[in-house]
Design a protein that fits this description.
Blueprint: E1 2-7, H1 11-26, E2 30-35, H2 39-42, H3 59-66, E3 72-76, E4 88-93, E5 101-105, E6 114-116, H4 120-129, E7 134-136, H5 142-150, E8 156-160, H6 161-167, E9 173-176, E10 190-195, H7 198-204, H8 210-226, E11 234-239, E12 242-248, E13 255-261, H9 265-278, H10 280-289
Parallel strand pairs: 1-2, 1-3, 6-7, 6-8
Antiparallel strand pairs: 3-10, 4-10, 5-8, 5-9, 11-12, 12-13
Helix pairs in contact: 1-6, 8-9
């Protein structure tokens, strides 16, 4: 049996898929890697929320599994939306890499005045940390972002540290502590999605890291209860069942934060519901500012 593994065509996506394929080959399985183009890869000139949010990177790969073009797909787990098509399962969660953001800059930090990112969460956290900083939109793959930094369009840019590590890229800059700059839910985690097929699930489970799966399941439970997708500045980070979760205003001046040890995924859902209620006004404001339908609920 040849396992058909789907991936986006970016360097980072290929590096992640390559890791999964190598792990499967080490365990004696034959694999074939297939590149699937997504709308998020082809439409890069507008903010991510305008082309459908993070789920835009996942949709085409989901369709390829459903249409039996591939057996499984490799994703940055933070890109996988809360609502999933029937018949698909996250069959493996690899051991987590760094969950942190990385601030890359090529001049003294004291001279950084313009930072590039298109993430509402990162923008809000930067503005909270330093209200004087100007945040400008920045999209594109890692190479494109680094090029724009080198060309002086930005004084600094924010990237996921795990992505840099997977690509073997070293940049001047500093790691942003995840306790302060709380990352996106599941950031730093690679996941494998496959059909709900016992034989496939058994194979992919050989790659699974139980500790990471528990932590990211708790993060995802909070995310699903809060809602808001990539529109709301939401950070959720769980390590060894210790949760830090926050919702910020778009300008970073207001925040609602929860920090505690969790006993179970159900406990995480309770904290997520609590966070949603307490942050309802911030969620509504984020949707309104982006011209989107209010989904903060009653």
């Amino acid at each position: 049996m040849v396992l058909r593994i789907g991936t986006r065509g970016s360097k980072l996506a290929l590096a992640q898929a390559g890791r999964v394929c190598s792990m499967l080959e080490t365990k004696g399985f034959e694999v074939e890697q297939k590149i699937i183009t997504t709308e998020g890869d082809t439409v890069t000139g507008v903010p991510l929320h305008e082309v459908g949010g993070q789920g835009v990177f996942v949709r085409a790969l989901d369709d390829a599994i459903v249409n039996d073009e591939i057996d499984a797909a490799v994703h940055s787990m933070k890109d996988i939306p809360a609502v999933r098509p029937p018949g698909l399962v996250t069959s493996a969660v690899l051991a987590r890499d760094s969950p942190a953001d990385f601030l890359a800059f090529q001049r003294p930090l004291s001279e950084v005045a313009v930072i590039g990112t298109s993430s509402t969460r990162r923008s809000a956290q930067i503005r909270r940390h330093d209200p004087v900083i100007t945040v400008k939109p920045l999209r594109g793959n890692v190479d494109t972002r680094i090029r724009k930094l080198s060309e002086g369009e930005y004084d600094a840019i924010v990237l996921a540290e795990a992505g840099l590590q997977r690509l073997g890229i070293t940049l001047p800059g500093q790691r942003l502590p995840p306790e302060q700059f709380v990352p996106s839910p599941n950031q730093g985690t690679i996941a494998v999605v496959s059909r709900l097929d016992p034989s496939l699930s058994e194979i992919m489970s050989l790659l699974d890291d139980p500790g990471t799966r528990q932590d990211v399941a708790m993060e995802r439970a909070v995310m699903e209860q809060v809602g808001g997708g990539c529109y709301t500045p939401l950070g959720v980070y769980c390590r060894n069942a210790h949760l830090i979760a926050e919702v910020l205003s778009l300008d970073g001046t207001c925040e609602v934060r929860i920090e505690e040890d969790l006993a179970s995924v159900d406990h995480a859902r309770e904290r997520g519901r609590e966070l949603r209620v307490r942050a309802r006004d911030l969620i509504r404001e984020a949707y309104a500012a982006l011209g989107l339908k209010d989904e903060a609920g009653g």
